[in-house]
Amino acid sequence: MRTPVPLWSIRSLVAPLECHLVERLRFAVRLIPSSAIIIVLVPVKRSGVYTRPRTLPASRRKGFKTTVRDRDARPAPDLVDRRFTATAANQLWVADIPYVPTWSGFLFVAIVLDVYSRRVVGWAMATHLRTELVLDALNMAIYRRNPTNVIHHSDQGDAIHVDRVSIRCKEASVRPSIGSVGDCYVTAMCESFNASFECELLVKHRFKTPRDASLAVFDFIEDFSNSRRRHTSVGSILPMEYERRTHAA
Q1: pLDDT band (50, 70, 90) for residue 67
Q2: Are residues 32 and 147 in the same domain?
Q3: Which residues pair with 110 in a beta bridge?
Q4: Do 99 and 105 meet the contact criterion of CB atoms below 8 Å apart?
Q5: Tens digits of residue pLDDT in 143-195
Q6: 20 to 30 A Cα–Cα from 144, which one of 10, 13, 116, 235?
Q7: Are residues 242 and 173 in the same domain?
């Protein structure tokens, strides 16, 4: 006759699994098609007492100032004026620089986002805020999309040296646009991406070095945000799929 396994030992094995499932649920719910059957987790009755359901409050990091106005630069005009709408791809790009804290310093991530499909079309990573960081992200977007007369919108700052970026934009038929200083509404689309980037990746992971962080950031942008994350602003469709459908139409 087999010896029954004590109940407390079973619970000690199940509890870590429950915590893991709750943490992964936030990722999985975005991948569920609208036509799928959704299974709802409910509190379980244990020893005559219903357990209280766990909540998942949004977690935000302390702010870090990445935008410092360059007083000598002559900013480009604001061509957007907080109107973040586009009727086709490569009409309006917005740019920003979120950051990743590590045990050995910060990793800065310059991104260029297409407002039409919410797809990250250009990105670059570095441990500094020099002009090269922004130019690398812009060059990637230009190489990938080969745009004509697209607006590249960002806020002001030392990281974005207006003169050099304006020259590169002129060479590639891109119209530079710059909003006010330190205003989150100026790049509201990117702020939305930053919030997702923060809550779905950075809150749950700690990185020893910027190199470790760069691998996770690459996976988040290319494999998750662009390829597997459904965006409610475009009908809960993947950005790449949304562009393919509209292009085919």
Answers
A1: low
A2: no
A3: 124
A4: no
A5: 999 999 999 998 776 445 677 888 899 999 999 988 766 566 666 777 778 88
A6: 235
A7: yes
- What local confidence, expressed as pLDDT, does residue 154 receive? 85
Does 206 lie in the same domain as 99? yes
What the block records as the tokens of 53 is 């359901």
Asked if pLDDT for residue 214 goes beyond 90, the answer is yes
Instruction: Report percent pLDDT > 90 for the chain.
Output: 31
Average of per-residue pLDDT values in the chain: 74
Exposure pattern of 142-168 as b/e (b: 16+ CB <10 Å)?
A: beebebeebbbbbbbbebbbbeebbeb
- Compute the distance between CA of residue 170 and CA of residue 190 in angstroms, rounded to an integer: 23
Amino acid at 90: N
Q: What is the Cα Rg of the chain in Å?
A: 22
Domain span including residue 18:
7-50
